[in-house]
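(Fold this chain)
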Amino acid sequence: MVNLSRRAFLEFCAKITAIIGLESTFTPQIAEAISKLTSNAPPVIWLQGQSCSGCSVSLLNSCDPGPSEIITQYISLKFHGTLSTATGETAMDALKNLINAGKYFLVFEGSIPSKMPEACVIGHIPISTLLKNAAENAEGIIAVGACASFGGIPAAENNPTGAVSVPHFLKDEKINKPTIILPGCPAHPDWIVGTLVHMIKFGIPPLDSKGRPKMFFSKLIHDQCPRFSDYERENFAKTFTDNGCLFRLGCIGPNTYADCTIRYWNSKTNSCINAGAPCIGCASENFATKTNFPFFRKGEQSRMLEEKKIS
């Protein structure tokens, strides 16, 4: 690796080992996997469907290592529609050559417009066609973010494009490839890098029934909440600036599996609940799929006041 001491490299490997929940004795094997990634074999192709590019932004918000290190040293990122410097026919030719060569890992962000292919195109090619071609030659597929995992906001009820998730699309196209989903709006950079490393070195990590890595999504946010003791004592916040449990302000942590509250975001400085914002369940399979899905449940405050009058 360029401009990286062995000590710094091993420190990074130890962090990745911890991220994916392995004992420190696995660090040498993780180092071997990362070395394989950085030696340009196998490469990673990142395609974007119907999305806001938020998961790409999340990857760029990574720290220890930073984004430039991840995409240039730790991951052999060969194509990314937003980050690649090549444009036009040059970029499309590079993508086609990579797909034809095979032996790569495919990362897909966003949903797929199954009923309106022209709603999302790259180089005049529908993203559904690109995904089908890329998935057939991939070693493994990682669906990154709520949209790729479950459909997300683009697949909300009454959407005209027929947006579907990556697993849904692959099933319809009868493409049977190892596929992992990393829900969340956006997905945490640790989840992306940790899953890639695990796939390279150990293969598919243990998954739950939805296809999510158990190392990141095995526990409810509620069970790991820094305000759990407030919930137990029924000390509920009345406003977002109050101390106390945020359940009555609409928190969906009791129904959402992820480790946000212990992993932290924004260079590991904070999480939604720590900042006084209820969990909106963005890692849940139900996130934004129905028109009545509440980002914030209106009425909880009035119900609480009504209960107080009765008591």
